[in-house]
Amino acid sequence: MAGVTAGFVEEIFFRGFFMTELAGAGFGKTAQVTISSILFGLVHSAWGLTSGMFTMQMIGSAVIGTAAFGVFCSIAYLVSRRSLMPVIIGHAAIHFVIEPWLFMVAITMTQVH
Questions:
Q1: How much of the chain exceeds pLDDT 90, in percent?
Q2: Which DSSP letter does residue 28 get?
Q3: Cα–chain-centroid distance for residue 80?
Q4: pLDDT tens digits, residue range 10-41?
Q5: How far is CA 83 from CA 15, 44, 73, 76, 102, in A?
Q6: Which residues have C-beta within 8 Å of that of residue 87, sequence separation ≥ 6?
């Protein structure tokens, strides 16, 4: 449930709000995709940094992977004429598949420490 909710909220903020604000400030589509995706990736480093359970290499990989996913979502958002529905559904589906594995890793890392 957390993954589905997070996907919904993240898409509303990073695509619906943030990309719209960038467009309103005069940024082109390439800049909107790039800036929102980098921010999206960086925000996802917070859990690893605050938990202290992950190495900088793992956090860096997660940021890069999440930023790449952000590029995909941003392009899908633009292609769909700024409709949030396709990216919310896609993001929720990805979380539905990935989230159980992320929780398992977190639990395993907690037990190791």
A1: 50
A2: -
A3: 18
A4: 999 999 999 999 999 999 999 999 999 999 99
A5: 9, 23, 11, 9, 28
A6: 11, 15, 73, 76, 77, 80
Burial environment of residue 8 by CB neighbours within 10 A (0 to 12, 13 to 18, 19 or more): middle
Nearest to 49 by CA among 39, 59, 40: 59
The answer to whether the beta carbons of residues 34 and 102 sit under 8 Å apart is no
Give the tens place of pLDDT for each residue, 89-99.
998 888 878 77
Counting the structural domains of the chain, the total is: 1
Q: Whole domain around residue 47: which residue ranges?
A: 2-112
The residue written with tokens 């695509």 in the block is: 15
